[in-house]
Amino acid sequence: MRLRLVRERRASPVPGCWHSQKRGCYRSGSPLRLAKTMRQLFLVITLLAVAVLPAKPALAVSGRVQFEIGGQARSAIVVEPERFKRSPRTVVIVLHGANNGSARRIQNNLGLDDVVRSAGVVVVYPEAVNGRWNVTGEAGPDDTAFLRALADRLIASRIADPRRIFLMGTSTGGMLALRIACSGADYIAGVGALIAAMPAKLAANCKPAPMAALLMNGTANPLVPFGGGTAQLDNYKDDIVSAEASLMPFAQANQCKPQRQRQDLADRDRADGSRVVVEYGVDCARPLELVRVEGGGHTLPGRPARADRGQVVGAQNRDVNISRLIADFVRRAEK
């Protein structure tokens, strides 16, 4: 089934008339004829000047899609670059967390749209029922079916390339993304979990297909402990495994070597109490990355700091922008 996308955008400018259409305007030697010639010359010069200027990224078109799944109305925000040719593109589906609670909120907080626009990437922000994902898959909305149905509609509408759909999430959204990836979902090319970790109940039976994987967490995250333990999120207070253990099933599926390639990013803000280290998998079938924010809390690097419903979230890193890291990861995984 194709998606019905309700769009809101500005009307395209309509070129104005360069000359009068009244009778008598084109008589030889008239001032109007000379004016017309001068305007045409000016237009040619302008077009030549524009031709040598660097192209600007296409404007983004945003709309909300709605459909029913299991008798329940569901929706998502779709942001795609404007284009002349309707060809399938790379799609990044971003799941909001419980504490930031809505598709529009994570869209604004993450700032991903502007970063990936020039690459023609479509970004989709699904909405959880009452702002909370069914992380465990037990009683509650069938979010797995919803996201699969959303991906199918994006493919049928020629928005998504079925080989280039990436599922990412923050906090509980990241946990849900990991659960879907662990189930062997065949419609995603990669998974990303930000300030998140894998639920302990899921870890033992996680059997992902070879796919790109990104995990980011702060070593001083008070809500999702980097080394594992009990998560203290608004709608998830249960055991989780460490960041390393969360990434291990994907390293095995991708047949990565045990060692990693380490990159210490520049500590641009020494006053933020944290710094970023990226570890890349070696000789993996698909890209594998662990972004470790040393001293970082339950926050997204480079994004505006905010409290999560009164909870202490820890240090905010300002050395890098998480949206740039996501965009770089997707670019590598597309190859």
The CATH architecture assignment turns out to be 3-Layer(aba) Sandwich
* Strand count: 13
Tell me the number of helical segments per DSSP (H or I, 4 or more residues long). Answer: 8
Distance between the termini: 29 Å
SSE series: EHEEEHHEHEHEHEEEHEEEH
| Overall morphology | globular
Strand percentage, roughly?
15-25%
Average of per-residue pLDDT values: 85
Low-confidence stretches: 8-29, 43-58
List keywords for this structure.
eleven-stranded mixed β-sheet; two-stranded antiparallel ribbon; Rossmann fold; globular; alpha/beta; 8 helices; 24% strand; 335 residues
Explain what this protein looks like in three dimensions.
The model is unreliable at 8-29 and 43-58 (pLDDT under 50). This protein has a single domain (60-334), classed as Rossmann fold (3-Layer(aba) Sandwich), CATH 3.40.50.1820. By secondary structure, the chain is an alpha/beta fold. An eleven-stranded mixed sheet has the order 1-2-3-5-4-6-7-8-13-12-11, with helices on both faces. It has a two-stranded antiparallel sheet with strand order 9-10. It is globular, with a radius of gyration of 24 Å. The longest helix has 21 residues, at 31-51. The chain has helices at 31-51, 103-110, 112-116, 143-156, 172-182, 200-203, 243-253, 322-334, and strands at residues 5-8, 60-69, 72-81, 89-95, 122-126, 160-170, 190-194, 212-218, 229-230, 239-240, 260-264, 275-281, 288-294. It has eight helices and 13 strands. Helices cover 26% and strands 24% of the residues.
